From TrEMBL:
<feature type="transmembrane region" description="Helical">
    <location>
        <begin position="355"/>
        <end position="377"/>
    </location>
</feature>
<feature type="transmembrane region" description="Helical">
    <location>
        <begin position="389"/>
        <end position="414"/>
    </location>
</feature>
<protein>
    <submittedName>
        <fullName>ABC transporter permease subunit</fullName>
    </submittedName>
</protein>
<keyword id="KW-0813">Transport</keyword>
<dbReference type="InterPro" id="IPR000515">
    <property type="entry name" value="MetI-like"/>
</dbReference>
<keyword id="KW-1133">Transmembrane helix</keyword>
<keyword id="KW-0472">Membrane</keyword>
<feature type="domain" description="ABC transmembrane type-1">
    <location>
        <begin position="148"/>
        <end position="328"/>
    </location>
</feature>
<feature type="transmembrane region" description="Helical">
    <location>
        <begin position="275"/>
        <end position="296"/>
    </location>
</feature>
<dbReference type="Pfam" id="PF00528">
    <property type="entry name" value="BPD_transp_1"/>
</dbReference>
<feature type="transmembrane region" description="Helical">
    <location>
        <begin position="102"/>
        <end position="122"/>
    </location>
</feature>
<keyword id="KW-0812">Transmembrane</keyword>
<feature type="transmembrane region" description="Helical">
    <location>
        <begin position="471"/>
        <end position="494"/>
    </location>
</feature>
<feature type="transmembrane region" description="Helical">
    <location>
        <begin position="128"/>
        <end position="145"/>
    </location>
</feature>
<feature type="transmembrane region" description="Helical">
    <location>
        <begin position="194"/>
        <end position="222"/>
    </location>
</feature>
<keyword id="KW-1003">Cell membrane</keyword>
<feature type="transmembrane region" description="Helical">
    <location>
        <begin position="420"/>
        <end position="441"/>
    </location>
</feature>
Length: 659
């Protein structure tokens, strides 16, 4: 009787889902085994490919033909401040024409370095002053000044545009939840997951090969963090502050600009920091469509396989990135502590003494440059070059360790990369759509299942399934190894304050390095190919796995840890049975971010010979084929969105289960 009753009880949800997944995997395996009978379910038939790329190309051609007046107007308007910044920092102002033209000099390098020292001292003290000023001085002394100032000029115009646009979009999304849900969030997801190269193609087609094209592409890529920071900052303003402004009789406009936005300033400044770093990263990539600057120097050196020149330009990018990152972080930290000007004086120089001093230094040194050439341009006599040293170092490593490096590379390709690639590229497209849809249904219901299945099917019906799976294979291996490295390091950092102090500067440095800088040393040692792409991607994507794991373990409530100790748990039991399970959702967020960063880096690695969707975008860029590039970019974006939605749903479910 007891046996009959237990047999009639419904199976637990976990056991039921295990049976469902076993049946689903068996069905996909059967599909693969019967591919001769149903070839259309394994390889998407070429005759059924939807010509989305042709439609996009036709649309872009129509826009170029019928709206050229608009693109020319935008180019003319944006070109004015951009030309001013370029002339001010990197070139000279030319007034007049021909022989009667008068040249006004650009800002003196001595003055810019002095202002960098001053800015660092004002917002962060002596240490920051030495760091920021030292970075600018390094750029000057190693002969990269003009290229660095071209890059800085583009950033100085793109970043304010991103901040203003992001601020207003964030305010609109915060005020209108329907707009945030239906318009802003999907748009931000696309903007952040479409690969950087895909931004360049329509810009090149519509605005030509010019710095304006590069600036617009940079602005599109770097705006999303400001939108998200604005929405987050406004939603975090305490309710009592909002109610107090209502009681004080503020209008809606006054409440927003005088109460809510000032209260959200620390979060907004974090968004500004992220905008600056993304803009710098994108400006380097945008050098391919006319931005010039340090990114162009790296590109030329990489194409010519000039190791030393590539490393010097790459290190100049690193120096500029570190200076801008630390400076913006210090300003955000100062804003968070509530440092404001207390004195109110009618005279400008008394209200802003440091700004006045900076302007005076720039003016004086630039005027001196008219009479003392050493102030106008960095004298070659005081510049250094390490290019021969870098070349010699790479040659030494290559000569002495060539056999070991080559053995490692070949073994990795034959035993790991090629088998995984063959498995992924041979996976039935219908089976992938079905399994991912089933995962979405299990995690969040029918809506997520439909979204995931539709985005996956898009990659097949556009004829890009093989390239998509090649991208998934390389991104998956890179993200998996990055997690294998990053999660244990994060666990060790969480358990040891001393180890955390060692790890933190390293991952901070890795986070500010532009993506180009990861490719340069690896390609010199391992040559072009999938191994180079994998190693560079692991180095680029490992940071979130470390940071989120460390943060997840450390944010477990101390009361729960004390309760475990009182219950008699050993430190090992407390860690594995209390801290780790509670930190698992946070760790999985880190895995999610690692996958997205790996996907972003894999696309850039198309420059070093990978054969995937990134290559499609790269070829489309070289041929100015907008349809091909945009569709391939959308396929990459959809891979990122599928991974993000599934991991986010899993994390939300885990958080709900843990309370």
């Amino acid at each position: 009787m007891t046996v009959t009753a237990s047999a009639s009880e419904p199976r637990p949800p976990l056991q039921r889902w295990l049976l469902v997944w076993a049946a689903a995997l068996a069905a996909v395996l059967l599909l693969f085994l019967l591919q001769d009978s149903v070839p259309w379910a394994v390889d998407y038939p070429a005759g059924a490919v939807v010509p989305v790329a042709d439609w996009v190309s036709a649309l872009m051609g129509w826009i170029k033909s019928n709206l050229s007046w608009l693109t020319r107007s935008i180019t003319a308007v944006l070109g004015v401040p951009l030309d001013f910044a370029l002339n001010l920092l990197a070139k000279n102002f030319k007034i007049g024409h021909g022989a009667d033209a008068y040249i006004l000099p650009r800002l003196s390098w001595v003055g810019v370095c002095a202002v960098a020292f001053l800015a660092g001292h004002v917002v962060g003290g002596r240490k920051l002053s030495l760091l920021v000023g030292g970075c600018f001085l390094y750029i000057a002394l190693f002969g990269q000044w003009t290229s660095a100032m071209l890059t800085l000029a583009l950033i100085s115009i793109a970043v304010p545009f991103c901040i203003v646009t992001g601020l207003f979009a964030g305010i609109w999304a915060w005020r209108k939840p329907w707009a945030e849900r239906l318009i802003v969030s999907p748009a931000l997801d696309l903007m952040q997951t479409i690969p950087t190269f895909a931004y360049l193609i329509p810009m090149l087609l519509l605005f030509g090969n010019s710095p304006v094209s590069a600036m617009i592409a940079t602005a599109i890529f770097a705006t999303p963090p400001m939108v998200r920071a604005t929405m987050l900052g406004l939603s975090r303003v305490p309710l009592e502050i909002s109610e107090f402004s209502d009681m004080a009789g503020c209008t809606a406009r006054q409440k927003l600009w005088r109460v809510l936005l000032p209260s959200a300033r620390p979060t907004l400044m974090v968004g500004v920091n992220q905008v600056i770093m993304l803009a710098l990263n994108m400006v380097i990539i945008a050098s391919m469509i006319g931005a010039g600057g340090l990114g162009y120097d790296v590109l030329l050196a990489l194409r010519a396989l000039k190791v030393g020149e590539a490393m010097e330009a790459g290190l100049a990018i690193v120096a500029l990135a570190i200076a801008l990152d630390r400076l913006s972080q210090a300003i955000a930290h100062k804003q968070a502590k509530g440092h404001v000007h207390q004195a109110v004086s009618p005279s400008f120089w008394r209200r802003y003494p440091n700004l006045t001093l900076a302007i005076a230094i720039l003016a004086a040194t630039t005027l001196l440059g008219l009479f003392v050439p050493a102030f106008a341009a960095v004298p070659k006599a005081i510049t250094f070059t390490t290019a021969p040293l870098w070349k010699a170092a790479v040659n030494w490593v290559t000569i002495n360790f060539f056999d070991a490096i080559e053995a490692f590379r070949v073994a990795l390709i034959l035993n790991v990369l090629n088998p995984v690639r063959a498995f992924c590229e041979g996976f039935p497209w219908l089976g992938a759509v079905f399994l991912l849809g089933l995962a979405g249904y299990q995690l969040s219901g029918l809506r997520l299942a439909a979204l995931v299945a539709a985005l996956t099917a898009f990659c097949a019906i556009t004829g890009l399934w093989e390239k998509t799976m090649a991208t998934v294979y390389l991104c998956g291996i890179s993200a998996f190894i990055a997690c294998l490295i990053g999660i244990p390091i994060g666990l060790m950092a969480a358990r040891s304050d001393r180890f955390e102090k060692i790890v933190t500067p390293i991952i901070d440095t890795l986070q500010v390095l532009p993506s180009f800088c990861f490719i340069i040393p690896v390609v010199m040692l391992f040559r072009v190919g999938d191994v180079t792409a994998m190693i560079a991607t692991i180095a680029f994507a490992v940071v979130p796995a470390i940071r989120y794991t460390n943060h997840g373990i450390r944010q477990v409530p101390p009361a729960l840890i004390e309760a475990a100790k009182v219950s008699g748990c050993t430190p090992r039991q407390t860690f594995f049975r209390v801290q780790l399970p509670l930190a698992l959702p946070e760790i999985m967020l880190g895995v999610n971010q690692t996958i997205l960063m790996a996907l972003a880096m894999i696309i850039i690695c198309a420059m070093v010979g990978t054969r995937d969707l990134g290559q499609e975008v790269f070829i489309a860029l070289s041929k100015a084929d907008s349809g091909r590039g945009i569709v391939a970019g959308l396929a990459i974006a959809f891979i990122g969105i599928v991974a993000d939605r599934l991991f986010s749903a899993w994390t939300a479910k885990a958080r709900a289960r843990l309370g």
